[in-house]
Amino acid sequence: MSQHNDPIETVEMHTGGEPVRIIVAGYPELKGRTLLEKRRDARDRLDHLRRRLMHEPRGHFDMYGALPVPADHPDAAFAVLFLHNEGYSTMCGHATIALGRWAVESGRVPKTEPETRFVLQCPCGPVAVAVEVEGGRAGRVRFESVPAFAAALDRKVAVPGFGTVSLDVGYGGAFYAVLPAERLGLDMARSPLRALVDAATAVTQATKAAVPLDHPDDRDLAFLYGTILTDGGDGKAKPSINVCVFAEREVDRSPTGSGVIARLALAHARDTAKIGERHVFESLTGARFDGHVARETRFGGRAAVTIEVGGGAYYTGSARFTAEDGDPLKDGFLLRP
Fold first, then answer.
1. Going by C-beta distance under 8 Å and a sequence separation of 6 or more, which residues neighbour residue 79?
2. 92, 122, 124, 244: which is the annotated catalytic residue?
């Protein structure tokens, strides 16, 4: 029987329609010196609380959460763990945008106008956040990525049901397989969402088996998080539409901040994204993130880039979640047709 039945309080937000459930009180203290050690402790000892907050009846299949915790990075104002239906992300851009606004308006970081800057420690590393502030109210949020890079270009992968397709793998704080939907016989504007999700899931599973990944910092970061299907555009002349399917078939309602980073790292490796050149990416909700390559760098002995991404987040409410002893479903469940 799981314990930790004290009420858990949250602030509810969304970025581009993608939920961000920020846990602000009631979560037990995590063990570990580093953030990745805390992530492992959350997974190994307190995972029932992730399920309780992300799964039904308090959440849903596509719920997403953020748990602020003390930072171990010397420059960071605080650190965060990202939660979803299957586990714990290493990076999340849409949640970083929401946390930027929340941190300023909640007093978690000192507020300065016209812009408040601070460092957020994510499991993938420190992220520089800049929040526009006017009249005491926080607005648009930008953040700079950890070093991003192309892990594989034009890799041929045999995908059951779709044949052999060519795809790229990019790292933007998490690894993604990226390819136009048309290579799978699909159309971003006309194909049913279920067909896009099924195809992206098949690509993820096949790519995991076919493309080995490594990360210079920690093996906990070396896994394929999901697949991004695109309309084939680059986001320069007009917004490029994409859908990201990650974790356990979870569909991002936002343009996916870490996915934007991965896409721009891949574009820069192909010489189609110049330093400072603005690109715009759009999700199925019509929400948009813009991004650009801020500068080139080196990471783990390979060419890499730092990407800046911007967008807006909004409050939807607050909650106080309880769990009763004797409730057989208190730690959540998922139903998916």
1. 35, 38, 68, 69, 70, 71, 72, 73, 120, 121, 122
2. 92
